[in-house]
Amino acid sequence: MSNYCELTGKKPLSGNNVSHSNNKTKRKFYPNLKLVSLKSEILKRNIKLKLSTRALKSVDFKGGLDEYLLKSKNKNLSSKIKKLRKIIISKSK
């Protein structure tokens, strides 16, 4: 699945286009995804991620990728990020 945020797990939602005459046709609502490169101070390297703009704002608010991953839970993270989180936790201790 390529259309989902690796940090928050946001996926496309389905719904309807509703015309003025109340005709309904199926459509998809896609999350606003960006391919970004974030710096990890603990690992001392850049990490390329596909994030929603909301997740990017959350990472910025928490103080960076390392702090975000240390405080987050594994529930919505992708498998790539779960492995990265495990490495960051082990190196931060």
What is the topological layout?
Layout: E1 13-18, E2 24-29, E3 33-40, E4 45-52, H1 53-62, H2 65-71, H3 79-92
Structural overview:
The structure is a single chain. This protein has 93 residues and is an alpha+beta fold. It has one domain (13-88): Ribosomal Protein L24e, Chain: T, CATH 2.30.170. It is 33% helix and 30% strand. The protein has a two-stranded antiparallel ribbon. A two-stranded antiparallel sheet has the order 3-4. The longest helix has 14 residues, at 79-92. The chain starts with 12 loop residues before the first strand and ends with a helix. The mean pLDDT is 93.
Overview features:
alpha+beta, two-stranded antiparallel sheet, 30% strand, single chain, 93 residues
- Shape field: elongated
Return the CATH class.
Mainly Beta
Termini separation comes to 33 Å
**Would you identify the CATH architecture?**
Roll
Number of helices: 3
CATH topology: Ribosomal Protein L24e, Chain: T
Q: Which consecutive residue ranges, at least 5 long each, have pLDDT under 50?
A: none
Order of helices and strands: EEEEHHH
Number of domains: 1
Beta-strand content estimate: 25-35%
CATH superfamily: Ribosomal protein L28/L24
In the sheet with the most strands, the strands line up as 1-2
Helix content estimate:
25-40%
* Helix and strand composition category: alpha+beta
Return the average pLDDT rounded to an integer.
Answer: 93
Q: What's the count of strands?
A: 4
User: Compute the gyration radius: what is it?
Assistant: 17 Å
Main sheet specs: 2 strands, antiparallel
